[in-house]
Automatic annotation (TrEMBL):
Keyword set includes Magnesium: no
Keywords, ordered alphabetically: Aminotransferase, Pyridoxal phosphate, Transferase
TM region positions: none
GO MF annotation, one: pyridoxal phosphate binding
Cofactor: pyridoxal 5'-phosphate
Any one Pfam family match given in the protein's UniProt record, by short name: DegT_DnrJ_EryC1
Highest taxon in the source lineage: Bacteria
Coiled-coil intervals, chain numbering: none
Gene Ontology BP terms: polysaccharide biosynthetic process
Modified residues (N6-(pyridoxal phosphate)lysine): K197
Protein name: DegT/DnrJ/EryC1/StrS family aminotransferase
Active site: K197
Family the UniProt entry places it in: Belongs to the DegT/DnrJ/EryC1 family.
C-alpha cells in the first residue's frame, strides 16, 4: 500500500475537531453582559473574575484563588509570594514547556533541571533527591499532559527539606490524584487558559493557594504590591499588575459547567485508541502516574519503539491525515536557559523521550471514538512501510 507521502490515498481525509470548541450560549450571554456593563477591568466593580477564582479554588479543594494574565506570570507570582527569589534554586522537570523554567528566572531564582520518571515522564522524586542543595527553595512538579505528578512522594521530600511546592497545572484542569484535585496539593497551583488549553480565553491563568497568608502575598504580587483590603495607593510590597480581565473571565466561567463532560469525552477517545493500538506493537500509550484517579487528557503521549524513524513517521502520519506533535525538546539543551544560569542535572530519560515520544493533540481527542481506528490504521500503514525503521 503506497503511503500518502509518496502519492497514495491517505487513511483519513475528514478534518479533526477545531479548538477551541464553538462558543456556547452561556458564554455568549455572559460576555455580552460584561461588554454592555462597561466593567471590563478586574478592579472596576464587576464580579465575574471573583466568581471564576472562587469556583476554581473550590474545584481545587482550597479556599483562595488569584486570576492572572497568563500562567507564566502565575508561576512567577506564586514563587515570589512563597518567598522564592535571588540566590534560591527551584527544581523543575526536564520534559516540560520552557515557561516552567523561565518563570523561575523571572522570580530571580535559578532553575535546576532534573530528570523525569522513565515510565510516566513526570518529575522523578529520585532525580529531585539527587538535585537538592542547600540553596533549593522550591519544587515545581508539572502535571504533564493532564495527568498528575507523583505528589505524595514530592510533597514528602518538600516537607522533609523545608521546601515550597508550586504545581504547574497548566495542562491539568479537572485532574485528580488519589481523588484529590491537582493544584491544591502543594502550596500553590497554577492553571493556564492559553489558546491550546482545556479551558481558554485566548490567554490567561489562575493561581490557587491553600494557605491564607500565602494567598495574601501572592495576591499582593499580582496587584502592584497592595495589601489585601488596604489602601488603593498603599504599596507596602513590590508587585505588578498581573490581573485577568472581566471579559476573559466571562468566557471561562461558563466553561466550568461543561469541563467534566469534555474530560470524559477525551478519556473515552483515549481508551478507544489504546484498544486499537494493541495491534500496533511499535506504539505504546505512556501511562499515567500511579495514583492518578482522573486524567484530564490535555494530550495523549505515545512512545515509539527505539528503532522507529520518528521524523519520517511524523511527516508520513500528517500526510495520512493524522497530524501528531513531536513534543518537547529537553529543557537542558536550551542554550538560552543555560546562558541565564540554569543548572542541568543528568537527564538520560528525558533525552530518550525527546526522540521517541509523540503526542496526539487535545482537539483530536475530542473526536468521535470511532476515529481512533484512523490513527491506529495510519500508524500501522506507516510503520509497515519498508524503510521506516532505522
Amino acid at each position: 500500500m503506497t503511503l500518502a507521502i509518496h502519492g497514495g490515498a491517505p487513511v483519513r481525509t475528514a478534518p479533526w475537531p477545531a479548538w477551541p470548541p464553538p462558543v456556547d450560549p452561556a458564554q455568549r450571554e455572559l460576555v455580552t453582559e460584561v461588554l454592555e456593563s462597561g466593567l471590563w477591568g478586574a478592579t472596576q466593580g464587576g464580579s465575574v473574575v471573583a466568581d471564576l477564582t472562587a469556583a476554581f479554588a473550590r474545584r481545587s479543594g482550597v479556599r483562595h484563588g488569584v486570576a492572572v494574565a497568563n500562567a507564566t506570570l502565575g508561576l512567577f507570582a506564586a514563587l515570589r509570594g512563597l518567598g522564592v527569589g535571588k540566590g534560591d534554586e527551584v527544581i523543575v522537570p526536564a520534559y516540560t514547556f520552557v515557561a516552567s523554567a523561565t518563570a523561575v528566572l523571572l522570580a530571580g531564582a535559578t532553575p535546576v533541571i532534573a530528570d523525569v520518571d522513565p515510565v510516566d515522564l513526570h518529575l522523578s522524586p529520585d532525580a529531585v533527591r539527587a538535585a537538592l542543595t542547600g540553596r533549593t527553595a522550591a519544587l515545581m512538579p508539572v502535571h504533564l499532559a493532564g495527568s498528575p505528578a507523583a505528589m505524595d512522594a514530592l510533597n514528602d521530600l518538600a516537607t522533609r527539606h523545608g521546601l515550597a511546592v508550586v504545581e504547574d497545572a497548566a495542562q491539568a484542569h479537572g485532574a485528580t490524584y488519589k481523588d484529590r484535585p491537582v493544584g491544591g496539593l502543594g502550596d500553590a497551583g497554577v492553571y493556564s487558559f492559553q489558546a491550546s488549553k482545556a479551558m481558554t480565553a485566548g490567554e490567561g491563568g489562575l493561581i490557587v493557594c491553600r494557605d491564607e497568608s500565602a494567598y495574601e502575598r501572592v495576591w499582593s504580587v499580582c496587584n502592584l504590591g497592595r495589601a489585601l483590603g488596604g489602601q488603593w495607593y498603599g504599596h507596602p510590597s513590590v508587585g505588578w499588575n498581573l490581573r485577568l480581565t472581566e471579559l476573559q473571565a466571562a468566557v471561562l466561567l461558563p466553561w466550568l459547567d461543561r469541563l467534566d463532560d469534555e474530560i470524559d469525552r477525551r478519556n473515552t477517545f483515549c481508551a478507544a485508541l489504546g484498544h486499537e493500538l494493541a495491534a500496533v506493537p511499535e506504539v505504546a500509550v505512556v501511562p499515567a502516574t500511579e495514583g492518578t484517579t482522573r486524567d484530564s487528557r490535555h494530550l495523549l503521549m505515545l512512545r515509539l519503539d527505539a528503532g522507529v524513524d520518528r521524523a519520517f513517521l511524523l511527516e508520513a502520519m500528517a500526510a495520512e491525515g493524522v497530524p501528531l506533535d513531536a513534543g518537547y525538546p529537553p529543557l537542558g539543551t536550551m542554550s538560552a536557559l543555560i546562558g541565564e544560569g540554569a543548572r542541568v542535572e543528568s537527564c538520560p530519560v528525558t533525552a530518550e523521550a525527546a526522540g521517541t515520544v509523540v503526542w496526539v493533540r487535545q482537539s483530536m481527542l475530542m473526536e468521535d471514538p470511532a476515529a481512533a481506528a484512523d490513527i491506529a490504521q495510519a500508524f500501522a500503514k506507516v510503520l509497515r512501510h519498508t524503510g521506516i525503521a532505522n
